[in-house]
Amino acid sequence: MAPTKLIAGLIGPLMAAMGIAMLVNRRMFPEMAAQLAQNYAVIFLSGILSLLAGVWNGGWPVIVTVMGWLLITGGLARMWAPQMVAPIATSLGGDATLLPVAGFVSLVLGVFLSFKAYGPTI
User: What is the per-residue pLDDT across 21-62, written as a single tens digit (0 to 9) for each?
Assistant: First the structure.
């Protein structure tokens, strides 16, 4: 359980901060997504970083486990086929409805994981 709490303690506050950034700067994110989609090196680098974030565990940490699998899958996709991922980033980044939803989900997951990592142990 300790590795999961450590990972939750790292990604929880980061996800909460990302969620707030996405909600506060939602007009800027479509342009950032378009710029990202044009830079295969950044897509590749984000794939490497996502691949490193994978973790395996059970119980309540299944959220961290599922996120780990998604990050591994996304990381490998970005590393192996950045040219195929770029159009996805452009289309999702330009969706005015999806951005606030993604920001809210990221914020909620971040707060939950932060609480699990730093909150009282039962």
Answer: 888 888 887 888 788 778 888 888 877 777 665 555 556 677
pTM of the shown model = 0.54
Mapped onto helix, strand or coil, the DSSP state of residue 27 is coil
61 close to 1: Cβ distance less than 8 angstroms: yes
**Number of Cβ within a 10 Å radius of residue 72:** 18
The answer for residues whose C-beta is within 8 angstroms of residue 71's C-beta and 6 or more apart is: 50, 51, 53, 54
Contact 79, 40 (CB under 8 A): no
Tokens, residue 74 = 């996304």
Dist. CA 109–CA 20, nearest whole Å: 12
CA 105 – CA 120 distance, rounded (Å): 23
Q: Tokens for 117?
A: 């990592």
Domain ranges of the chain: 2-117
CA-nearest of 22, 23, 39, 14 to 90 is: 39
Query: Inter-axis angle of helices 2-24 and 62-80, to 10 degrees?
Result: 70
